[in-house]
Amino acid sequence: MRNFEFYNPTKIVFGAETVAKLDNLVPANARVLILFGGASAKTTGTLGEVKAALGTREVQEFGGIEPNPSYETMMQAVELVRREKIDFLLAVGGGSVIDGTKFVAAAVGFDGEPWDILLKRGRNVKSAMPFGSVLTLPATGSEMNNGGVIMRKSTHAKFSFSSAHVFPQFSILDPTKTYTLPQGQIANGIADAFVHVVEQYLTYPAQALPQDRFAEGLLQSLIEIAPKALSMEHDYDTRANLMWVATLALNGLIGAGVPQDWATHMIGHEITALYSIDHARTLAIVLPSLLNLQREHKHAKLLQYAERVWQITEGSEEQRIDQVILRTRQFFEGLGIKTRLSEYDLGVTAAEAVEAIVTQLGAHGMTALGEPQNITLEVSLAILIDAI
Ligand code: NZQ
Ligand code: ZN
């Protein structure tokens, strides 16, 4: 196991009917800005519930944060916060709203052009405003981590940043908030959480027994609950498990002391930025091909994953690896997520898209990805061709 420091200060308030607890979580004299996405926060009633819980506090609203939040939109929120002397931010939504809020929290007091936060991946963030979240979509883990992803629309650049200053102070996780999600977003959440675990687990053996067993448990939980979650029954326990698994998948716990990959995410972000394909769907396109192309390097962990997560024990080692990559692809397909680039509406041919994605990877310095940093542009090209 590698040396590590583990720090996670986010308070989690979990369960049905917990939005009212905002009254105890937000400072009584705070000037609050509630940030939310498109229509869902209003139509589901969550925004109203949040405002009721905040009582007589001074509250303003900033809506219209897009899925894949844009720098352009979030800078409008930064100006509003500065102008109105807001001192507490409250995100009400999924990963996009929480990520956007993290960016605002860091950008308001930032010395210089806030895009630099993204260019330096957050290393230059020295402080941030306090904020909390009410999670409405289990997927990203943003509610309990210190990372965010922001897209600059004008240049199709989607960059992530992280900083110890942008952990939410608290996050309210009410599983009943997921009842209004369309099936496609439930599928996205399962796939995104699944790939978060894989990025931190499926590398090479690091003699980190609890991290491996935790990771395998999270993957098995997702596989177990997926059919019921997708059935759209309002089954509380299924949604509670989905919500907590998605949080645990990316709150730092399973990634402590182990090598991490993240190449699937880096390639996926370029696909979203160019072709507006949902984040989770880009991962389902890239991951099976990445595992195939990295099979030599990931050999030992692929066999462990095959045996412990999918109970694949028959056949030669190469056959077991073939089988488990296929099972992974079938898992995404079973969620209703297409795993081939050519199955999506790209507006260009898949071959042209591959060329454009690789060009963007090069422009963004993504030339040595993956835990062994062996995913050069040539390897990314091979992965993407395999994914067509
Ligand atoms: O915009 P509205 O109308 O609110 O609708 C949203 C949105 O269209 C809808 N939605 C959310 N909660 C709902 C609901 N609809 C009905 N009922 C509810 N309760 O869902 C749509 C998608 O929301 P979004 O927040 O975009 O989804 P998600 O949580 O998957 O977040 C994706 C973003 O997170 C980033 C991704 O890159 C992407 O930008 N990620 C953030 C990470 C992090 N901070 O750690 C890690 C991830 O790997 C990921 O990169
Ligand atoms: Zn993700």
Characteristics of this structure?
388 residues, alpha/beta, Rossmann fold, 2 domains, six-stranded parallel β-sheet, two-stranded antiparallel ribbon, 48% helix, globular, binds 5,6-dihydroxy-NADP, binds zinc ion
Molecules bound to protein? 5,6-dihydroxy-NADP, zinc ion
Give the neighbour order of strands across the main sheet. Answer: 1-8-5-4-2-3
Span between termini? 37 Å
* Strand coverage percent: 5-15%
Main sheet overview: 6 strands, parallel
Along the chain, the helix and strand elements come as EHEHHEHEHHEEEEHHHHHHHHH
- Uncertain segments: none
Q: Could you please say which CATH topology of the largest domain applies here?
A: Dehydroquinate synthase-like, alpha domain
Shape category: globular
Secondary structure elements and pairings:
Layout: E1 11-14, H1 22-25, E2 31-36, H2 40-43, H3 46-54, E3 58-62, H4 71-84, E4 88-93, H5 95-107, H6 115-119, E5 131-135, E6 147-152, E7 157-162, E8 170-173, H7 183-201, H8 209-230, H9 236-249, H10 263-275, H11 279-293, H12 299-310, H13 317-334, H14 350-363, H15 377-387
Parallel strand pairs: 1-8, 2-3, 2-4, 4-5, 5-8
Antiparallel strand pairs: 6-7
Helix pairs in contact: 4-5, 7-8, 7-9, 7-11, 8-9, 8-12, 10-11, 10-14, 11-13, 11-15, 12-13, 14-15
The structure holds 5,6-dihydroxy-NADP and zinc ion.
Residues 140, 192, 195-196, 265, 279 line the site of zinc ion (ZN).
In short:
The protein is α/β, with parallel strands linked by helices and 388 residues long. It is built from 15 helices and 8 strands.
Give an account of the 3D structure.
With 388 residues, this protein is α/β, with parallel strands linked by helices. The chain has 2 domains: 11-177, Rossmann fold; 183-387, Dehydroquinate synthase-like - alpha domain (Dehydroquinate synthase-like, alpha domain), CATH 1.20.1090. It has helices at residues 22-25, 40-43, 46-54, 71-84, 95-107, 115-119, 183-201, 209-230, 236-249, 263-275, 279-293, 299-310, 317-334, 350-363, 377-387; strands spanning 11-14, 31-36, 58-62, 88-93, 131-135, 147-152, 157-162, 170-173. The strands form 2 sheets. The protein has a 6-stranded parallel sheet with strand order 1-8-5-4-2-3, sandwiched between helices. Helix 7 packs parallel to helix 9 (236-249), helix 8 packs across helix 12 (299-310) and helix 12 (299-310) crosses helix 13 (317-334). The longest helix has 22 residues, at 209-230. The chain is globular, with a radius of gyration of 20 Å. The chain binds 5,6-dihydroxy-NADP (NZQ) and zinc ion. 5,6-dihydroxy-NADP binds at residues 37-41, 44, 67-68, 93-97, 99, 136-137, 139-142, 145, 147-149, 177-178, 180-181, 185, 188, 192, 250, 265, 279. Zinc ion (ZN) binds at residues 140, 192, 195-196, 265, 279.
